[in-house]
Amino acid sequence: EAGVAQSPRYKIIEKRQSVAFWCNPISGHATLYWYQQILGQGPKLLIQFQNNGVVDDSQLPKDRFSAERLKGVDSTLKIQPAKLEDSAVYLCASSFWGGPPDTQYFGPGTRLTVL
Amino acid sequence: AQTVTQSQPEMSVQEAETVTLSCTYDTSENNYYLFWYKQPPSRQMILVIRQEAYKQQNATENRFSVNFQKAAKSFSLKISDSQLGDTAMYFCAFMKPGSGNTGKLIFGQGTTLQVKP
Lengths: 115, 117
Fold this sequence. Notes:
The complex is a heterodimer of chains A (115) and B (117).
Chain A: E1 5-7, E2 10-13, E3 19-24, E4 31-37, E5 44-50, E6 53-56, E7 65-68, E8 75-79, E9 88-95, E10 105-106, E11 110-114
Parallel strand pairs in A: 2-11
Antiparallel strand pairs in A: 1-3, 3-8, 4-5, 4-9, 5-6, 7-8, 9-10, 9-11
Chain B: E1 3-5, E2 10-14, E3 19-21, E4 24-26, E5 33-39, E6 46-52, E7 60-61, E8 64-69, E9 74-79, E10 88-95, E11 106-107, E12 111-116
Parallel strand pairs in B: 2-12
Antiparallel strand pairs in B: 1-4, 3-9, 5-6, 5-10, 7-8, 8-9, 10-11, 10-12
């Protein structure tokens, strides 16, 4: 079974530029999550999708961050414009809806450096 | 709001020995899940072990076991017969299940574990 795929793996941009990350979840997983992991900290949820609908985006900085999952499969996370404090690893995870205690499967992450 | 605290930023253990990582959490919920995730250097996060709050029996997975104390809101991870491949950052996480048993994970700050040969 293929795991969660993310691209790019690394990205370096200047502040005020825009950037987009892509995630392909495990086949059949209806729930998709984006987490932000700042160096030395635990991941923090940015947004949770159920199919193509948003379940929780309470911690997404909506003035600069946006995310979509148009067909209920792949998802993109965008930052525009980027700030220095956005430097972090962005993790995508997916899980199977309606099963026993939820296990989230994580992708390798995208490491973003904002200069 | 729920919080998760890991008070040990770094730990080390000799190969083949046993080590215990600590985690405490705060919640007013009665139904929730607790997890330990492992994040090896430059590799992706994987689930180590999971505990349902309504189960009194402590979860075990091979060399990994937990000590779940619900009243004390404590959830420690014991690694027996430590191996070099156990070197990683370990995160304790809390989840209140929502629709379809899914929900956001609330992570602690992490504990870096180094296993020494």
